Q: What sequence folds into this?
């Protein structure tokens, strides 16, 4: 048995980040099993209302495709670019034929492993943060293996952002992809 690879550790930290944000927002977060993972869903977050500025729905669920990277994202206007590997994953995220909304959450970690987490008597800190994007309605890709997508800087995956997203979904206002920033 060998230790986890850096890529496995990045993945585990992204799950920890997702669970921490969901829990702090008062939502549940469950990691997906093999079948859902094969369908491009790494986790599902479920939240319960009433949501501030929310709508009729008192329970909303969101399927999550989760990624982590140490690559420094390129800033394009008010967004970060990210190369999503796997066109089938891209297609799963962009379709509106799924029962639950799906979003892509990307955790950007520091370049060096020793900076990913720090410990102190009063804090355990995971450095940098994640952003989310809905690819619903995005154009089909003409690429064979990957697609560059844009994560708005305004869509940091944090407690406030998750609460706003759940409130929108409770109003049946499912976010759609805005594409490359102007």
A:
């Amino acid at each position: 048995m060998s230790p986890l690879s850096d890529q496995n550790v990045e993945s585990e930290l992204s799950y920890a980040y997702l669970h921490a944000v969901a829990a702090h927002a008062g939502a549940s977060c469950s990691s997906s099993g093999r079948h859902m993972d094969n369908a491009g869903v790494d986790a599902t977050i479920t939240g319960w209302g009433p949501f501030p500025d929310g709508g009729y729905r008192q329970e909303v669920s969101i399927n999550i495709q989760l990624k982590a990277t140490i690559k420094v994202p390129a800033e394009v206007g008010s967004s970060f670019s990210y190369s999503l590997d796997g066109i089938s994953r891209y297609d799963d995220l962009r379709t509106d034929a799924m029962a639950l909304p799906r979003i892509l959450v990307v955790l950007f970690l520091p370049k060096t492993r020793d900076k990913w987490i720090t410990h102190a008597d009063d804090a355990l800190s995971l450095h940098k943060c994640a952003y989310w994007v809905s690819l619903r309605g995005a154009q089909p890709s003409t690429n064979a293996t990957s697609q560059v997508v844009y994560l708005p800087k305004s869509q940091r995956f944090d407690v406030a952002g998750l609460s706003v997203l759940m409130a929108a979904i409770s109003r049946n206002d499912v976010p759609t992809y805005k594409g490359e920033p102007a």
User: Anything to note?
Assistant: The helical segments are 6-24, 34-38, 87-94, 159-170. The longest helix spans residues 6-24.
